[in-house]
Each structure stands twice: as C-alpha cells, then as structure tokens.
Design brief:
This protein is mainly alpha-helical. The chain has one domain: Rossmann fold (3-Layer(aba) Sandwich), CATH 3.40.50. It has six helices and five strands. The strands form two sheets. A three-stranded parallel β-sheet has the order 1-2-3. It starts with a strand and ends with a strand.
Length: 132
C-alpha cells in the first residue's frame, strides 16, 4: 500500500501540471495492476479541501462531489471512511470546514456528548456547542 500526500491528491484532481498529473496517473495504474490500495488519510482530505477552496477557488459542491467519487473508488483506502461519509453531507450543506465536521464525527464515535467550539459557523449544527 502507498499513501498520498496532499500535493499528489490535488495534482490528481486538478491536473494543472501535465507532467505531475501523468506521474500520479502512472502510480495509480500500477497500484490497480498490482491490486494495491492507495491510502488517503483524513488529514490529506482536509488539506485537499482547503487547497481546492483557497488556491483554486472551487465551490463547496464541486469539492464534495470530488470527495464522494474518492469515497466510491475501491482503489482508495480512506482513513475513517465511515466518518468521512457522515461528515460529507454536513460539509456540503453547512458553512463550516470539512475538518470541523470530521472532528465532530470522530468525537461522537468516541462517545462525546458534543464538541465544544468557538467557531460560529457551527452554530445550529447538531453535535456542536458554540461557546461565547
């Protein structure tokens, strides 16, 4: 199994550098041929969302669509896949970052009654308490 760094995943999704995009495609092709999964950590997913939003100007819906395709691709072994699946619709419809919703999902799975935050974008979101 091989893991991807954020810059490799971004290059795969955006394909704005032909040479690097070809290198990633070759890596994925080899992994498929060898029946080896490619590991994507939740940190890489969160960083990728941030890069796609801030550096490339992608909209939340476009990013959520791309994440959904990654989740549906068998070749990708995604850390806490079930948490990401539950956080994705909240990210798509909400105002907070994917990272915030993932934190909430992980905390809930660990038995937390809620997640305390100062992030007002999470006001009204189930499972979060915004401190004032």
């Amino acid at each position: 199994m091989r893991g991807f760094d954020t810059n490799v995943l971004v290059r795969f999704l955006v394909r704005d550098d032909a040479r690097q995009a070809e290198a990633v495609a070759a890596l994925i092709t080899a992994a498929v041929e060898e029946d080896q999964p490619i590991y994507l950590s939740t940190i890489v997913l969160c960083e990728t969302v941030w890069v796609l939003e801030s550096a490339y100007g992608y909209e939340r819906g476009e990013i959520a669509d791309a994440l959904e395709k990654l989740l549906l691709t068998q070749q990708f072994e995604i850390e806490h896949r079930d948490h990401v699946w539950r956080a994705l619709p909240r990210y798509r419809a909400g105002r907070a970052d994917l990272a915030d919703f993932l934190i909430g999902e992980v905390n809930h799975a660990a038995g937390c009654q809620d997640t305390a935050t100062f992030d007002t974008a999470l006001g009204g979101e189930g499972g979060f308490t915004v401190l004032s």
